[in-house]
Amino acid sequence: MRQRNIKNLQERIEANSGCLIRDPKALKGRWREAFGNDRPIFLEIGSGKGRYVLARAEARQDVNFIACEGQENVGLRILEKVEEAQISNVRVFMEFIHDISEYFKEDELDGIYLNFSDPWPKERHAKRRLTHRRNLKSFMKVIRPGGAIEFKTDNDRLYEFSLEEIKESGYEIMEATRDLHGEVSAIESKKFMTEYEERFLAQNKNINYVKFREKSLAAGKGRHSMIFARENGRTVPKEDKIFGISNRAKEMAAKVGKDKVVNGTIGALMDDDGKLIVLDSVDKVFKSLKPDEYAPYAPIGGIPEFKEAIKKAAFGKYEPKGFTEVCATPGGTGGIRNTVSNYSAPGDRVLVADWFWAPYKTICQEIGREIQTFTFFNDERGFNIDDFKKNVLELLEIQDSLVIIINSPAHNPTGYSLSVTDWRNIKAIFEKTPQDKHVALFCDVAYIDFAGDEEQYRQFLPVLDEMPENVLPIIGYSASKTFTLYGMRCGAMICMAKTPAIAQEFKQVTEFSSRGSWSNCNRSAQTIIAKIFADPDLKALVDKERAEYREMLIRRGKAFEAAARECGLEMVPFDAGFFASVPMADPDAVSKELEKEGIFLVPLAKGIRASIASMSEESCKMVPARIKAVMDRLAK
Length: 636
Ligand code: PLP
Known about the structure:
Number of strands: 19
Bound molecules: pyridoxal-5'-phosphate
Mean pLDDT: 93
Structural class: alpha/beta
Oligomer: single chain
């Protein structure tokens, strides 16, 4: 169809270019970056004014869509509609696709829509039809196993041709009809109409429809075998990176000897021989438990003695002024999940630092949220309050509620601890933000008892009590490290609310979520912690034992820092804790080289993380210079 020329076409495109991809070929293999998430991606080839793809995008906001329209004066309409309706899950490019492999890599898409494409009626033009077998083959190649092509046309002859091509190509037809809008058809695609389709329908013209995919899927073979969950749009990740590296470290140690390998991957405190440290005093309590202390279900929110004990564990000598409520969680992780799911809305962004513990992202992704990052450090190597503020304001502008996760002290992966001044500056920001917006400030204190003096590192707690009423501080406490109960999955989320009503809502909503995710938590771990706090002598013993290991960890951290300083290796600002990080441009390449030398560390997006908790003091003295040498070598 010929389109009218549009006045000021380029200016209008420019003014609505938020979702426009100007160089789509450059995104080959990286389309997920264009959306900033890992969700499935569907492509419509020949989107016209975008009615179909935008209706799809509205119905499935948890999925990404690419609209491709070669005519700029038509594609402009899509840009305008996306801009006007503020649609976030659509990207548009305005090119005619001749070779789809130039735009997408194998398996990159989850499906393709071909709607009312040019029938090219002359036989000698058959190869130009989008459903010609040669085209179908190249489309299928960029669709992941299990993904399908959906094709609609009013042209009966083109439809017959297409069915023939589909059969000849050996594809499996999943759904097909010559009358999509006829009474018997319950095909989903019927709900999403193109501009053409509506017009044809008004003229009582039948619409042909077929959905098909590669056949080997049905047979459960080859590249199509593992598709049960993916078919539902679930992310199927590759092997867990950290465990993969750690396994390679173990394999190498078995081959060349433990003394020639440094395994700085695992976030658990190990002795110098690589053995997990378990507090003896805690172990004794565990072994003394009677069946009625571990076997029965615990109440969903936790056993009452545990709730009291865990507050003392989290707050130390500080007595919170606000209204506190406790909900037991499986480790610190459970508290993060419960906070994100209850204090943000589906589709919201959760604010975290740009150096962050990867499961924050997994949790958000799992429940339909995304993360947004602020730059953690400023040029003076301190907490970047300006960028934090900028991101808070930006998110409060577009969201009614906001979850912020701050991991301090002894942050994973950098070892940084926010100062009391940093916390006061955060408070000052919230005093000026709109009071009708709700902020859940999740303080992830997983490493608080391994940073240094336990009371000194709790000095920020009173600042949380001074936050305005619309800010709800939640302490995410983990018994994994403090009591060396990693595998017992014990932790708690504790609110510091300004009113009893907020605290009561916290209790009810978090318990409801717990019931719907893991039911109740581990009773034996709760009993152990309750017993420790009920017996001052035992508590003193646990504290003393932990303090000795903490000193060991602090020595390792200082050794790593000193060695880095000596060889001129820049570290990400470090204070204390289980981890230290080194910034660099190509962490994967450096990590690969280090592995060859028997040093196993974790490459992150912006650097390498060393788990000093699992490295001996000697290794901490040696590793920085080795990292520096590899970086220098690769830079040449
Ligand atoms: N937060 C951070 C930053 C962590 O590194 C961890 C554990 O590694 C946790 C929370 C919670 O861990 P868990 O669920 O084992 O208590």
